[in-house]
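re: that chain from earlier
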Amino acid sequence: MENSAHASLVAAYWHHYITTHVLRDDVEGDRWFWAWQHVDEAVRSADVAALVVVVALANSCHSTSGLAFLGAGPLEDLVKAADGALFDRIINVATDHARFRRALATIWIKDRDKVQRLKTFFRLHRRFPMTPSTTPSDRSEHQPGLLSN
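^ sequence. v structure.
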């Protein structure tokens, strides 16, 4: 994806998030739904290009709630679909990107191997406290996964 198209996608994705989840303006949000769809399709490919998009989204987000939204959505889907090599890249990216790491700390997954590797990562980096749970009590509440507030 070309840099200007990439920047446009990132801006449109966050515009969609703000209009639908912060301002609760579904009519305006519908105008930007294409960006959410594009990110969703990219993440389903579970490749490095999808990781690049998610990292760009994390780096451009300036709110904790936005990072939780990113973690509970595209990033969680990417982690679930990732093969071993892509999962390794996700862990490596988290080492150097604080916002991405924060979003990663909010995901909910059941894959015990991935959960253990993430817990080890966060324990070693001591960036965020962890909770032992790997399943949400109520996803509609957007409760954090590996991150406790």
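Confidence is low (pLDDT under 50) at residues 129-149.
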